[in-house]
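[Q] Does anyone have a clean structure-token version of this?
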Amino acid sequence: MHYNIKGDKAMLMFAFVYEDQAPKPEKYNNIDIDESLFKKIGQNDMEAFDQLYRLTERTMYAFSLSLVKDHQESLDLMQETYLKILSAAHLYKPMGKPLAWMFTIAKNLHYSSVRKGSRTTNLEPETIQDDKRFSYITDMDDKIVLQTVLDKLTEEEREIVLLYAVTGLKHKEIAESIGLSLSTTLSKYHRALKKLRGHLEEREVRA
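[A] Here you go.
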């Protein structure tokens, strides 16, 4: 079995999505969030909320997945996050980093749930065939790559790799959104690539 991992843009060749029938575009546009949306949402403007959701749903899924490492729990965390955004949008202060604010909400909700014992962050299936977290992914190579990302990388590495691979965000945008410097983000990204190549090549040798 050969894993096609060639470097930056080819890191993850699949474009997995959180709905079975969702479209799979060849590339993703950069996210340009009008910060005035939060003020409108705070005034119960549901059209503004729908617009924010459409702009950020893929990005929030990737970020949620990096935290909980499970498809269904990612959907649950997304729902909790958007509900919190709906109730707290009036508190938003424009700073040019709307995604960072949204990510902070998701992370706070996740760790609050972990502390309460209602969510786990450490799921280690015995084999890829028995991994029920991503049964909706039919291609075995895709599933192996995704499982390796989730099980072998650190949380920050998962955030960077998934945001880059799934949403097409530039490294600079990712760095700003997760609160790291660009140099640190790039270093962690390349370290993650090296780590993934090593694990996948080792698995291929064993196969």
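[Q] Thanks! Anything notable?
[A] The chain is about 60% helix and 0% strand.
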